[in-house]
């Protein structure tokens, strides 16, 4: 294998690795940017929901309890934080798609709040780590990728057990609406669910992957053009002159063409080598004339 081929192989391998590295880095940076943006949006949505929940528990619920003396009366839209949050988010979702809010619970009153297997894992994490206040990550959901922000739902106020403690103590209206099988017998200070917000990042990741592929193929195209240019340059400026000088050196070694000067227009290392071989030709020619005065020059 010639020098040219070895050089081209080395350049190709290194350039290909560099192109792959650049494409991969581009994808990872875009992915990190997408996740950071999703995280920021998720925090905004969650802070709004949390503010609404705080207002409900601190201001709205006590007023409603003062207005409704009958303990068996239960109006979900006014007296349930879960229902208020869900209905507010349903209105929000009408104008902004790609976001999902769920109050995933192990044993909910409302069947749609039932936690799936992945959400059960999040709830178990909070139950096993009482000090944890948040979990974030990427999750596959319905064949799409979502970034999620989850926070625990804990029974931290006694009035929660009014509706979710012993079914017999729950308002009669609530038992009529939801039944008495699910959503009861919660315990104080227990982790029963998670408020989880999903932000779709499938399109962003697909765009990032497409951008990385474009960079990769552009890099491959530039690499091919570079290799062709290097090949032509090496052929004209290095390989062809070296072959010419190699043939001249062989002729000199057997006493041929000693009167033909070797010259080149190059002023680089190739030109220096040509000058050295030419000086060797002159020296060999002089030596042969001294030692063999009657010798005739051999020509091809």
From TrEMBL:
This protein's UniProt keywords: ATP-binding, Cell membrane, Kinase, Membrane, Nucleotide-binding, Phosphoprotein, Transferase, Transmembrane, Transmembrane helix, Two-component regulatory system
Pfam family, one: HAMP
Reactions listed under catalytic activity: ATP + protein L-histidine = ADP + protein N-phospho-L-histidine
Subcellular location: Cell membrane
InterPro entries in alphabetical order: HAMP_dom, HssS/ArlS-like, Tll0287-like_dom
GO CC terms, sorted: plasma membrane
CDD domains in alphabetical order: HAMP
Enzyme Commission number(s) from the entry: 2.7.13.3
SUPFAM superfamilies: HAMP domain-like
Principal location class: membrane
Name of protein: histidine kinase
Organism expressing this protein natively: Desulfocapsa sulfexigens (strain DSM 10523 / SB164P1)
């Amino acid at each position: 294998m010639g020098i040219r081929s070895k050089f081209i192989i080395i350049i190709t391998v290194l350039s290909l690795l560099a192109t792959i590295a650049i494409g991969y880095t581009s994808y990872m940076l875009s992915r990190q940017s997408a996740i950071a943006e999703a995280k920021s949006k998720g925090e905004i949505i969650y802070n709004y929901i949390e503010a609404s929940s705080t207002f409900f528990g601190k201001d709205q619920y006590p007023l409603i309890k003062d207005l409704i003396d009958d303990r068996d009366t239960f109006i979900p839209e006014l007296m349930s934080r879960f229902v208020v949050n869900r209905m507010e988010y349903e209105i929000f979702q009408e104008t902004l798609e790609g976001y999902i809010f769920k109050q995933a619970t192990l044993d909910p009153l409302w069947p749609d709040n039932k936690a799936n297997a992945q959400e059960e894992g999040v709830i178990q994490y909070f139950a096993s780590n009482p000090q944890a206040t948040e979990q974030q990550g990427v999750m596959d959901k319905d064949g799409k990728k979502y970034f999620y922000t989850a926070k625990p739902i804990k029974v931290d106020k006694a009035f929660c057990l009014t509706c979710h403690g012993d079914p017999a103590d729950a308002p009669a209206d609530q038992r009529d609406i939801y039944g008495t099988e699910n959503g009861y017998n919660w315990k104080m200070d227990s982790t029963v669910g998670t408020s989880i917000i999903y932000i779709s990042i499938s399109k962003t990741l697909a765009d990032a992957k497409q951008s990385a592929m474009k960079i990769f193929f552009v890099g491959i195209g530039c690499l091919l053009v570079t290799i062709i240019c290097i090949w032509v340059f090496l052929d004209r400026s290095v390989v062809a002159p070296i072959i010419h000088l190699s043939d001249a050196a062989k002729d000199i070694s057997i006493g041929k063409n000693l009167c033909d000067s070797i010259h080149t227009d190059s002023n680089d290392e190739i030109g220096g080598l040509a000058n050295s071989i030419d000086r060797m030709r002159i020296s060999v020619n002089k030596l042969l004339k001294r030692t063999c005065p009657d010798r005739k020059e051999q020509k091809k």
